[in-house]
Write a structure and sequence with these properties.
five-stranded mixed sheet; alpha/beta; Tyr_Pase_dom; 5 strands; 144 residues; protein tyrosine phosphatase activity; Prot-tyrosine_phosphatase-like
């Protein structure tokens, strides 16, 4: 562990209310230049390709919700903890729907009310974050 998080100006980085930095990205795009993650969470319907850093797979079909919600909450808690000192990324195929949903749930764990989480992520990560009505509803009802 390098004990160094992302630079705030790194593309795709979301600053959480606590100041922690998390990178979101789409896996269909090439790995961005610069620093590599130290821990990644990959939201995919099938197991993703291996990466050279520690990672965790959350089974999550495109446009839907996590298959195991308890494991998803546990993973987000790990993301929050590790992002204090490590470069952590969350990614799905496009970097919008599942990634935006996960980041919205993450900001609720970091102190933003559920009713404001999606707006926070759209303003601070990507305006296209979260793609379906049930993903929006999931954020509204999320509790960690």
């Amino acid at each position: 562990m390098t004990n160094e998080t992302w630079s705030a100006d790194t593309p795709g980085v979301l600053r959480l209310p606590s100041g922690r930095l998390i990178r979101g990205r789409g896996l269909r795009n090439p790995l961005p230049p610069g620093q590599k993650p130290e821990f990644g969470v990959y939201l995919q319907g099938k197991e993703p390709a291996p990466v050279e850093w520690e990672s965790k797979w959350v089974k999550w079909t495109d446009f839907w919700l996590p298959a195991d919600r308890a494991a998803f909450v546990e993973t987000l808690r790990e993301v929050l903890k590790r992002s204090e000192t490590e470069r952590v990324e969350i990614a799905c195929s496009g970097g919008y729907g599942r990634t935006g949903t996960a980041m919205s749930c993450l900001v609720t764990l970091d102190g933003i009310p559920n009713s404001e989480a999606l707006a926070y992520v759209r303003e601070n990560y990507n305006k296209r974050a979260v793609e379906t009505p049930w993903q929006k509803r999931f954020i509204g009802r999320f509790s960690g």
